[in-house]
Each structure stands twice: as structure tokens, then as C-alpha cells.
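Incident review: delayed structure delivery

Summary: a single-chain prediction request sat in the queue longer than the usual turnaround. Root cause was a stuck worker, restarted by the on-call engineer. No data loss occurred. The affected request and its eventual output are reproduced below so the record is complete for anyone auditing the incident later.

Affected input:
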Amino acid sequence: MAEFRRIIMSSFLMLLLLFTAASGDYSSIFVRVGDDVTLPFENVTHDQKCDSYTWIMSYSDYSVLLFEHGEIIKEAGAKSDRLSVTEKCSLVIKKVTVQDVGLYICRQIISGQQLGEDALYELSVVTLTEHHNNDQVELDCSVSTYGQSTHRVDWLYEGDEKYSKYFGSTPFTSSVWVTIPTAHFNRSYYELLKCAVRDGYNKKEHLFTFSPPQSSGEKPGDDATTTTSPTTTTTSPTTTTTSPTTTKRTTVNMSTSGGMKEAASEDNNNPTAPRWLWLVGALVGVAALLITSVAVLRWKT
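Output delivered after worker restart:
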């Protein structure tokens, strides 16, 4: 009985947080798979154990309570083992995975009254992978996002030349990859190529370097999947951009002199869903959880 009451109270709290967060300002954070990230809460008052702070994570049609009453919530599942809260009540996520993508909300409530403003963070996760397919090497950069992706992803060659033209406008993921003939592939490409992610909201650019593979037994989604033997020849890679949910596909031939020739392009434009629709989905998910909990509680009594 007490457990059901706790679920109901937590559901009410998440509904309240998500509803008021709809009009708040978002801060975008991009982090690479496997790295740690800290989500700060700048409006901290003297509260050593952070008992009055609550952290929740929302993604699409569900929400998860992560931290409440000074404790990490075990119901967060395996994710709870990677969570911690600092003395200043910032949320730390270790060894980030694509499952951590979402909207993170923090609020301080004392005696039923909110103190200060909410902290809202939209966490996007960048995955860099390497694949060997017959006679070519493919380096892939993908960005998993909360809701509608408006971020642009490009490969930069030697720091400033962009070799892809795809602007992310489809749900959840934007990706771009380069293909290099195996005979010409060498480790210098790990330094010459950088994945540039341009925030669709504040237009800031974030650079991610492709790390050389550590072993040949890594799983897909890790930084690399295979090992390679370095050579001394460098050729121009080919960049391909795509989205898994549309037919838009653009292939661009890259050259070290900066020239680009578009080889093929076909585009079906999809309307961009308003950002608030994804928040509405999260509200519906929490409401469904609340209704189910109330129904079960009444059945138990």
C-alpha cells in the first residue's frame, strides 16, 4: 500500500515538473558514448544532502524519477548504478549510453514551495564507430537526440573543410559517414577527420575526434569495432549522409583540395514536428502511469 502511494506521489511530481518545464529554457549538452557527464544545478542553496532536490528524465512517451529525498531511485533500473549526485546537487552520469538521451529536469521544493528556477538539460549522445566492409573502411558519426533532431552533423577534414551537407530534420537520430579504400587507409585519418555537431538551437559547434580502435572485440556502438594496419598513402574519402527514417540520401566525393561533386541526391521532405509535441508525449506517458497506479490501488483496497 505504501509503495503504491509513493508511486502516485512520484507520478504527480513528474507531471508537475514536466508541465512547468514546457515553458522553460533548454540547455543542450552533447556527450560521446562512454564518457561521463555532469548536469549542474546552479540555483543551489545550503542543503548539504540535497534532500529538497528532485531529478527526473523524460524521453518521448515515458519519464523516470532518478533522484528524490537525497537518494538515487533504484527503480531507475540499471541506469541507477551509473548515477550519483554531487554536494552541489549536480547529477553525474557515468559511461553514457544512447539510452541516456532525454530531457533532464531538476527542481528544489521546500515546504511545498519551489525555490528558484528549474534546471533543464537536453542530453544528446554522439556515437563514433568504424566498420570494415570488403575493400573499404567506413567511419560513422551519429547523434541521438531527444525528440525532433535539428542538429547538423558534418565531417571536417583537416579542421575546416566540410564534406557533408545533410541537416538533421528527422526524429531521434542524425548521422553521417565517410568511406575510405582499405588499401589507402592509415591512422592519420583519426587526426584529420573530426565529427562536427552544430546545435540546432544556439548554433554552437561541438567537435569529436575519432579515437583509434583499442581492440578487435568491441561491440557495435563502442568507439571502434576493428583494428587496422597503418599505411603511408592518403586518398580522398567519400562522405555519405542519411537518416534511417527518410529517403534523403546524398553522396559527396571528397578531395584534399576542397572540391566537392554531388554524385546522387533524392529528397522527400518531411514536416518538422513542433518541439512541444514530444513534451506532450511525455506528459501522456506519465499520466498513463498515474491512472494505472490509481486503478491498481483501488483494486487492492
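Verification: The chain has a mean pLDDT of 69.
Action items: add queue-age alerting; document worker restart procedure.
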